[in-house]
Amino acid sequence: MVAVAQLVRASDCGSEGRGFETHQSPRKALGNCPVLFFIRPRYCLIFNYLSFLCKSKLLGMLYLIPVISAFITWFVTWVIFKLIFSPIRPVNLGFFTLQGILPKHQPSIANDLGKYVAQQFPVDSIKQSIASPEKIKAILPFVEQHIDDFLRNKLPKKMPVIAMFIGDSTINQMKATLMGELDELIPKLIGQYLDKTAEEVDIAGLVAKKIETVSMEELSQNFYGKMGKTITAIQWSAAAFGFVAGWIQWCIAIGF
Q1: Which of 2, 11, 131, 196 has the fewest CB atoms within 10 Å distance of its CB?
Q2: Could you tell me the pTM of the whole model?
Q3: DSSP string covering 3-70, please?
Q4: Residue 38 to residues 24, 26, 60, 64, 129, Cα–Cα distance (Å)
């Protein structure tokens, strides 16, 4: 019994009981592997180099954001101004038909402008403007001169018998009487003439027809000729705004 107890104690304290444990740690064994020792550092260098290239390429693309944004805003502004008149005739693009804004809506614009002009210049306002007392007084001297010439020169030639019985005093009385009547008659004549004209003439239709016949080629040339510098300034202002907006986006992208 004593021998068995000593044998058990020796087994518990001896090194033969460690046969179930590994004699080397996995990390140490992996580190001593010659193949992994050769590959691992080079793999890390390659990975770091590829990561640097990706980051550099991404940063290089981010630097283009302000330039691209400025070009887009300039191009969009250029297209908008071109679409005001061009294309003058419809162009079928398959899914839709493209035509300039003014050429496409020229008939409706003409009708709207004709109605607007007719509303802004009614017959009553025109009548009041033409038949105003100031305008009547302005033409009375001319009428008086014409009546005087008629009574003194033309009437004796056409009716010699009457000319024998009238003198200067009679001519002055007749002229004064006629001028008084004409002072009241002229405004009525003008009013009746304008009323008759308004019934027969369609002001809105005349204006609309005139606008519809306007040549878009000539109108576009005049427009771009007179507004060319202003349009260029607007385009470059839009490009500057786009550049600033792109720069702000770039700052946000890099985490500024």
Answers
A1: 2
A2: 0.52
A3: HHHHHHHHHHHSGGGGTTS-SS-HHHHHHT-HHHHHHHHHHHHHHHHHHHHHHHHHHHHHTTHHHHHH
A4: 21, 18, 34, 41, 105
Amino acid 255: pLDDT: 65
Dihedral angle at the C-alpha atoms of 133, 134, 135, 139, nearest 10 degrees? 100
Of the candidates 77, 100, 98, 83, the one whose C-alpha atom is nearest the C-alpha of residue 234 is 77
Note whether 84 and 102 are within 8 A (CB).
Answer: yes
Q: What secondary structure letter does DSSP report for 1?
A: -
* Cα distance between residue 170 and residue 191, in whole Å: 32
How far is it, in rounded angstroms, from Cα 155 to Cα 222?
Answer: 57
- From 91, 84, 121, 81, select the one nearest 106 (Cα to Cα): 84
User: Within 10 A of 178 (CB to CB), how many other CB atoms are there?
Assistant: 17
Does residue 120 have a pLDDT over 70? yes
Is the CB of residue 149 less than 8 Å from the CB of residue 181? no
Residue 150 is given by DSSP the state I
